[in-house]
Design goal:
- This protein is mostly helical.
- It contains seven helices and three strands.
- The protein has a domain of 73 residues.
- A three-stranded parallel beta sheet has the order 1-2-3.
- Helix 1 packs across helix 2, helix 1 packs across helix 3 and helix 4 runs antiparallel to helix 5.
- The longest helix is centred in the middle third of the chain and has 13 residues.
């Protein structure tokens, strides 16, 4: 995605400190970076943030989806795959699957192709016409 302004790439730890607001200094620095800059967010960073929120912080899936959806929706957050990330978040919220599996479903849909997997749940979802 080409931007008129120069976007900066942020690491997952910046996003985590921003979302969690759990560190007196680092959370404030993260907030300044995210709110005062045009940010480019890569889908691998999103996946890492979700994994950390789910596994380490043990946040509920509904809270993760809500917070990540709001974050991704910020106008100054850029991504080459913003719509696909939002679709993956939707699948992640609807089904009992990991975010990575949800990402694969969204990718399969965008690419209009099939998904090969040994995961029975993912296989079943990938075969549905509406997904």
């Amino acid at each position: 995605m080409q931007s008129k302004s120069k976007a900066i790439i942020v690491d997952a730890n910046i996003v985590l400190r921003f979302l969690l607001n759990d560190h007196p200094q680092l959370s404030q620095k993260a907030k300044a970076i995210i709110t005062k800059s045009t940010i480019f967010i890569d889908e691998t960073v999103i996946a890492e943030v979700i994994w950390v929120l789910e596994s380490f912080y043990e946040l509920k899936k509904t809270d993760i989806v809500k917070n990540m959806s709001i974050f991704i929706s910020f106008k100054h957050i850029e991504s080459e795959n913003k719509e696909r990330i939002m679709q993956a978040l939707n699948y992640y919220s609807l089904y009992n699957i990991s975010y990575i599996d949800a990402w694969l479903l969204a990718l399969r849909k965008d690419k209009k192709t099939t998904l090969a997997t040994f995961d029975k749940t993912l296989q079943t979802l990938a075969q549905k016409k509406k997904i």
